[in-house]
Write a structure and sequence with these properties.
The protein is of the alpha/beta class. Helix 2 packs antiparallel against helix 4, helix 2 runs antiparallel to helix 5 and helix 4 packs parallel to helix 5.
Length: about 475
């Protein structure tokens, strides 16, 4: 594979190898081996990044949108060129199979392109006036200011990429703090922006312990916007901190996506799509289909075929074998979480149809697992598993399925399969989620908003919303100078 890079921070246009707060190990989850050491920023280094973003903001915010677009477009092109090498690093850091890593990177390029193009399009609007004295009412979208971008490990290119692109396209400067176990992926992404011509201070990269670093950056008077992707529990803490300092905050949090499979669905297609998508990235996807609610008429067949497909998946080290379907979980804590969910579902609280065990050997591997008819109050049905576990529940009436789907406070993604057009429209309206997929499991494209409701967060990334999230709306009303 590509050699693991020496890890460095990027502050005010300079790469810095030494972390004044020490360093932390980076571990390959497929082997358990240490592959690198990540510098930890001191408060002084964080302050240097904040000052760089603050100093660079006036000039960058005045840079014409067409120029900002050109830089972002070059960054996307460089990311495409470097995708094979970067994919190897993604696989080494968080265990994603190579084909999935390549797909993540290339789709991120399209997102960067689209958000860059928004810099050329979002000029605002004119509103007709009501009287003769007013000659213009203009609405513009002004860059909010220096922004802090906090991202997790499960999509180490896509999530930083869309946040960076939205912020820079809107005219904001940014400080990126990626997950501590996938720092090199973010570093290689930032290199693409640097090589594309992003001026010094416009984009900064720091590492460190999540809590102290996030708090230091959020409470700084320099910071005007915080964009966070991660767990609901952490999102609530950071949101409260941002609110106490009157900072704009966009959280994209956890999910526990339901999938309703109607008796009118194309069952073979639904099973094939659901089984393939559920175990993508070992189920470590916020929009992963997880709670499968299946019409009783086809329930037994769905369980049998889904479990057979899950049991046939090839699990292994994607760094050694590119043909594996599923790699490891990101770290040992995820293994313990999977064991707790399965233990709670055994006995009369559900049937483990396939999987349910740790895979012996090095690394953090867990079998693709299917639980039939988990209890309504089980850990699986009430807590996001964020791993390779699927649960399948029968229902009698479609309204009952919607009730189960909407019973949690999560509301990121929801899905449904039905060949009845009226029923499909009903499900699209009735499911409570920020994104709903009908007869397919894709709820994201560069042009569309990505975000949830309830405990899954608020606001959106991607689409025009991903640009507007980094702007303030300004109204200018102009009257005649003389009556």
């Amino acid at each position: 594979m590509t050699a693991y890079p020496t890890l460095k921070m990027f502050i005010n246009g300079a790469w810095i190898e030494a972390g004044e707060a020490g360093a932390m190990e980076v571990i390959n989850p497929a082997t358990g081996a240490v592959i690198g050491h990540c510098p930890k920023a001191s408060p002084a280094q964080l302050d240097a990044a904040l000052k760089a973003a603050d100093d660079a903001f006036p000039a960058w915010s005045r840079t014409p949108g067409a120029e900002r677009y050109a830089i972002l477009r070059r960054a996307a092109d460089l990311l495409r060129e470097r995708a094979p090498a970067i994919a190897s690093v993604v696989t080494a850091e968080m265990g994603k199979p190579r084909a999935q890593a390549i797909g993540e990177i290339t789709s991120s390029c399209d997102v960067i392109d689209f958000l860059g193009e928004e810099a050329k399009r979002k000029g605002g609007r004119l509103i007709p006036t009501r009287g003769h004295q007013l000659i213009a009412q203009m609405v513009t979208h002004e860059p909010v200011g220096p922004s802090v971008l906090l991202t997790p490990w499960n999509f180490p290119i896509n999530l930083p990429g869309k946040k960076i692109a939205g912020a820079l396209a809107a005219g904001c400067t940014a400080i990126l703090k990626p997950a501590e176990n996938s720092p090199a992926s973010a570093q290689l992404l930032v290199e693409c922006f640097e090589d594309a011509g992003v001026p010094a201070g416009v984009l900064n990269l720091v590492y460190g312990d999540p809590g102290p670093v996030s708090e230091h950056l959020i409470v700084s008077p320099v910071t005007r916007k915080v964009s966070f992707t991660g767990s609901t529990a952490v999102g609530k803490q950071l949101g409260a901190l941002a609110a106490s300092h009157m900072k704009r905050f966009t959280p994209e949090l956890g999910g526990h996506a339901p999938v309703i499979v109607s008796k009118h669905a194309d069952l073979a297609r639904a099973v094939a799509m659901c089984a393939a998508t559920k175990f993508r990235n070992a189920g470590q996807v916020c929009v992963s289909p997880t709670r499968f609610l299946v019409a009783r008429e086809v329930y037994d067949q769905f369980v049998a075929e889904f479990a057979a497909r899950a049991g046939a998946l090839k699990v292994g080290d994607p760094g050694l074998d590119e043909s594996v379907d599923m790699g490891p979980l990101a770290h040992g804590r995820r293994i313990a979480a999977m064991e707790a969910v399965v233990a709670d579902a055994r006995g009369n609280r559900g049937e483990v149809v396939t999987g349910g065990k740790v895979i012996a050997g090095n690394g953090f591997f867990f079998e693709p697992t299917v639980i039939a008819n988990p209890a309504p109050d089980s850990r699986f049905m009430t807590e996001e598993p964020f791993g390779p576990i699927a649960g399948i529940v029968p229902f009698d009436a479609i309204e009952d399925a919607v009730g189960i789907a909407n019973s949690l406070r999560y509301g990121l993604a929801a899905y449904a399969f039905s060949g009845d057009l009226d029923e499909a429209h009903y499900l699209g309206r009735a499911l409570r989620a920020g994104m709903v997929g009908i007869n397919q499991l894709i709820v994201s494209s560069p042009e569309t908003p990505f975000g949830g409701v309830g405990d899954s967060g608020f606001g959106s990334e991607g689409g025009e919303e991903g640009y507007l999230a980094f702007t303030d709306t300004k109204l200018v009303m102009m009257a005649k100078a003389r009556g």
